[in-house]
């Protein structure tokens, strides 16, 4: 990320990596002139674990569980992206019921993720009552996921060639009841977001991003859709059962923080609608197809829409029991650029909400280890330095 | 401590200290490279359904105000320095709770190149909470076990020497009678 050399007459507010605002480590530096932020930089990498390299050392099945643990909030969607790529390589397709169940899990996960975000983002703005309420209601979704899979966070619903868990009518009835309750609550939250005066004061007109900026900075997911940039993998390139049970894209015009709240809440309501449709027309078939243990050699890409935006997997196989290379491009990383740009010109006090506005998730975007050198200012690393470092490293 | 015989007023003071500590432990949470799963479960313990504040447990932003370090993750090499720094910044006596399978042994990330494999390699851990991720009930139970041990004075002495992070000066030995 961009590190500018320290100049004269500038005051830098360093934040992190351990800080009360977010639950994950990330280090931010805001250059301030009085109250106004004139520059921002982010230093990631505290959660870098070496998963992509680790994936080369594990079998296809083991990798399924490793990929799920890239991120605890969007674990199912990571596994879905991975299995879809592997299935494509193996030339098999999951049965229709399995694909529908994948969509069920993905949409339940989206509800849980967006409600979690609603709470955290409200908390950043000081609306702790909303935080507590939305997390209380989120427990309803967690109960549904626990009922379906037996686990609250890492559901492990996917298998290569299908899914593990089936839905039965009693489960669906219970989930329907929960969804009715959630829909009611979400309507209330939408009302709060749209009409609460203090809330509007903190969100409307803050961190406004135009459509052009969103496109230029490579924003994805709800962050981009709040800026009228209509792009949703579920609609543009349907995977799983999204062709049979389509979702409607939620787009807002304003591009400010308020629009991001509205888009996410409406998306959650859209997920509830789609879940009801799936439960009414769940196709009958077996849950798993047979997949060879060795995946044929080849390369493929797999795209899915995670709660935070487009998730992209590149998978290469050399025909063995282990993948040759797995490359993951996560939505949070794409959205960081927007924060750095949007921060400029705003008050320092708005930073937590602008940061939280993209729904940042560090565990899935930490992929760079920066080596600190003692003889120089570690903050300054020019392109020439980096090039020289690379040459020296491989000498 | 050791062979010294403490005076009655010191014993009384110690009792009051333990009482205060057990009734309102302030916790600090640090993610040392976990996948977020444990972190959202720790946050869930603070929210209405589980609500650990009824036990007096409060999540605290600053390490200097905290008694208990609730730590998740397999300790990535980048976060190790920070973890040590936070640990050293905490006032004595301090307690560490390791949450999640990867905090215990590296878990699913075992063998990845950028992790230390577990918090107990770096810090002396008082309570381990297994699970991937552990349920909020399990995390609350872990805290309860720690508090129980403190109450009965059965907490084992730590013998591990904790490494000082780079550029960090060891705090002055705190005055304890």
Report the mean per-residue pLDDT of chain A as an integer: 84
CATH fold descriptor of the domain at 60-329 in chain A: Cytochrome-c3 Hydrogenase, chain B
Strand order, largest beta sheet of chain A: 1-2-3
Radius of gyration of chain B over alpha carbons?
17 Å
The chain-level structural class of chain A is alpha+beta
- Helix proportion of residues of chain A, in percent? 40-55%
- The level-1 CATH class of chain B: Alpha Beta
CATH homology superfamily of the domain at 60-329 in chain A: Cytochrome-c3 Hydrogenase, chain B
Shape of chain A: globular
Order of helices and strands of chain A: EEEHHHHHEEHHHHHHEEEHHH
- The portion of residues forming beta strands of chain B comes to 5-15%
* Oligomerization: heterodimer
* Proportion of strand residues of chain A: 5-15%
Q: Can you offer a commentary on this structure?
A:
In chain A, the strands form three sheets. In chain A, strands 1-2-3 form a three-stranded antiparallel sheet. A three-stranded antiparallel sheet of chain A has the order 6-7-8. In chain A, strand 6 and strand 7 form a beta hairpin. In chain A, helix 2 runs antiparallel to helix 3, helix 4 runs antiparallel to helix 13 and helix 6 packs antiparallel against helix 11. With 395 residues, chain A is an alpha+beta fold. The relative contact order of chain A is 0.18. Chain A has a domain at 60-329: Cytochrome-c3 Hydrogenase, chain B (Orthogonal Bundle). Chain A has helices spanning 51-55, 60-68, 75-90, 96-124, 128-149, 169-195, 197-203, 211-217, 221-225, 233-236, 257-280, 331-343, 351-357, 383-393, and strands at 11-15, 27-33, 36-43, 158-159, 162-163, 298-306, 309-317, 323-329. In chain B, helix 1 (8-23) runs antiparallel to helix 5 and helix 2 (37-46) crosses helix 5. Chain B has helices at 8-23, 37-46, 77-89, 101-105, 136-151; strands at 26-31, 58-59, 68-72, 95-99, 127-129. Chain B has a five-stranded parallel sheet, with helices on both faces. In chain B, helix 4 links the parallel strand 4 and strand 5 (127-129). The relative contact order of chain B is 0.18. Chain B has one domain (28-151): Rossmann fold. Chain B starts with 7 loop residues before the first helix and ends in a 26-residue tail after the last helix. At the A-B interface, helix 1 and helix 5 of A face strand 1, helix 2 and helix 3 of B.
